[in-house]
Protein: O-succinylhomoserine sulfhydrylase
Amino acid sequence: MTDASWGLDTLALRTGQRRTAEREHAEPIFTTSSYVFESAAHAAECFANETGEHNIYSRFTNPTVRCFEERLAALEGGDRAVATSSGMAAILSVCLAFLQQGDEVVCSRSVFGSTVGLFNRLIGKFGITTRFVELADLNAWEAACNERTRLFFVETPSNPLCELADLAALSTLARSKGVRLVVDNCFCTPALQKPLALGADIVVHSATKYLDGQGRMVGGAVVGNHKDMAEVFGVVRTAGPCMSPFNAWVFLKGLETLRLRMDAHSANALQLATWLQQQPGVARVHYAGLPDHPQYELAKRQMRAFGGVLSFEMAGGRDAAWKVIDATRMLSITANLGDAKTTITHPATTTHARVAPEARLAAGITDGLVRVAVGLEDIQDIQADLARGLAL
Structure:
């Protein structure tokens, strides 16, 4: 049971749980593939229901997964969430639900490399065109839109340059064109940003990142209104990109501490970004929490804090960037983010390696760019580890 007056932390701890006859305090993991019906008539009744409310088969109905879905929907302020096997599966499910041959998508140029690949190489094979535009240029979004446009897709803040879209303005444009606005809220989570409250139609997540918070599981989710989520649920039910019960249980545990962790990530990241601006060899720092960020005022209006991901440009290009990365002893050299442990990567040769070089440069991802997903270690230890490479 959820109380409408509950705050974010209470929602993150209490929403969605239905205790069984065993009166357990923690949410159980329902590791079952199927469910037993009371009679043939009961089975027919459950199979005829399209809402996902009745347990039928764990590809699309599972109590642990449902608990995660209800909790995340409450945190995002949506009617319903649909859990998926990964963040990319969440985006794919949205595409399969709302696009068909001849349709078009307008997407920010500043998105995760796999998102670019999904729209260009996979969705494109089915006669769907994607037009990539500058994230913050509202005129470019409008110019790219036509009568065949069905979706706007945006990450904000973007990966890895921390650029922002004005969600209120973009959602107004989308509504005027009869287009759904889909927002990847992975970097902020509902603890820092509520895209649906700013006018977005659908939110997608890689639950693998901050919703988990400790780099343990892969998963995704889509959140929105009842009508749209019924379409997404139909994709997951039929095609099967579903979340496992065990993964859902781990994500439930992650949600319990989400706001506390996001505040701590944000505080560490702001300190690190400010420190990096003073370091030799660092040409530029990309972080929305810095007062010299071109969208700093928008960030203050749109986000409760600025998140845990930043990137910085090394003046010496790839050689200098790799020296910084290779000199670390504590930071984890991995492309994942949203972990309690700080991670570091070279986007041009990892997360965006499969993006065409010209498209990569157009998105501002240079060979000298280093991305850091700032963890929860003591900030002085993170700084000291990066200082090894910066001093070379």
